[in-house]
Write a structure and sequence with these properties.
The protein is an alpha/beta fold. Helices cover about 45% and strands about 15% of the residues. The protein is built from 12 helices and 9 strands. The strands form 3 sheets. A 5-stranded mixed beta sheet has the order 1-4-5-6-7, with helices on one face. Helix 6 runs antiparallel to helix 7 and helix 6 packs parallel to helix 9. The radius of gyration is 32 Å and the shape is elongated.
């Protein structure tokens, strides 16, 4: 379980320069939706992992390539950052060496540490340097299933094992509520759990009512930002006061249903009155008498079809 306090916000901008390029090379730049650094103790040592999140309202049929590019740019950026750091360190070492009157080309930095070899100079990345793993997750905020490819091989349509053996596949990590069991969704520990549950059943009123009834406690006091996401994704007309920090979604849905039923009843009564008015008018009844029968004002009745 990843805890919020173990996450650090990162700049979602990915910039990288191709290795070995000169200053004339145009940098590649992409923008992630969300990126955070995860740090936790594992086996007595600190482990770091970068998690990126891509939010989708619709299926993106090139998502494996898109996510692959994000991860590749992240690694390229780490290599470039390591190279810049080593370059800065070497310049500082040279400065200290000159100040001490020592020969600049010696094999150590004056403290017994070996300087970069020629191979390491080529990339700027040392033998002891390590990359931080980058994991990208795509979340589909839709009640529809993901029917796009989930890997590079699916996009290529390769079936020959000999060709596949020469290539590295890239698998997309997907969270799509329509294709997840409720038990899977319930594993989430934040309000994303309720958001995904609502989205999953949003296109089936009966199933949505059943789900809300079974989870009244969870949806009885849902944080406002989660409700905002639900409204934006599902177009649910959930109403609440802007001053509220928590919303009773169950009651809001019930109020919507009651309001819709009342509105439907009013529309039915109006249509019935209009039909009666039309028939009475065709029978020659004066409009003054018709108004008394249907119970609407003279101005309203005159505006109905066929009363001109």
């Amino acid at each position: 379980m990843i805890k919020p306090e173990e996450l650090t916000e990162r700049d979602p901008t990915e910039i990288a320069l191709p290795y070995g390029g000169d200053s004339a090379v145009v940098p590649v730049q992409k923008f992630r939706d969300v990126q955070k650094l995860y740090a936790a103790m594992t086996d007595g040592k600190m482990e770091y992992v970068l998690y990126g999140v891509e939010n989708q309202s619709r299926v993106h049929f090139a998502m494996p390539v898109r996510n692959y590019l994000y991860d590749a740019l992240e690694y390229a950026g780490q290599v470039e950052e390591a190279a810049r750091s080593h370059k800065k360190e070497r310049e500082e070492q040279k400065k200290k060496t000159r100040e001490a009157g020592k020969y600049e080309g010696e094999e150590t930095d004056g403290q017994g540490r070996k300087t970069f070899g020629s191979e390491e100079f080529l990339s700027g990345f040392g033998k002891e340097d390590k990359l931080i793993p980058s994991i990208t997750v795509t979340i589909l905020f839709s009640a529809k299933p993901w029917d796009g490819p989930l890997s590079l091989f699916e996009m290529m349509g390769i079936s020959d094992p000999a060709v596949q053996a020469c290539m590295d596949n890239y698998y997309m990590r997907l969270i799509a509520p329509a294709q997840m069991a409720d038990e899977e969704i319930m594993k989430f520990q934040s309000s994303l759990r309720e958001v995904l549950l609502f989205i999953k059943y949003s296109e089936n009123k009966d199933e949505l009512s059943r789900m809300l009834e079974n989870n009244q406690k969870r949806f009885g006091e849902l944080e406002r930002r989660a409700v905002d996401v639900i409204k934006a994704v599902t177009n649910a007309g959930i109403k609440y006061k802007r001053s509220e920090e928590a919303v009773d979604v169950c009651k809001a849905i019930q109020d919507m249903q009651t309001e819709a039923e009342q509105r439907g009843k009013q529309i039915g009564e109006l249509r019935k009155a209009q039909e009666s008015t039309r028939k009475l008018h065709e029978m020659g009844m004066p409009i003054e008498d018709i108004v008394q029968v249907v119970g609407y004002s003279m101005e309203v009745v005159k505006g109905w079809p066929g009363m001109v």
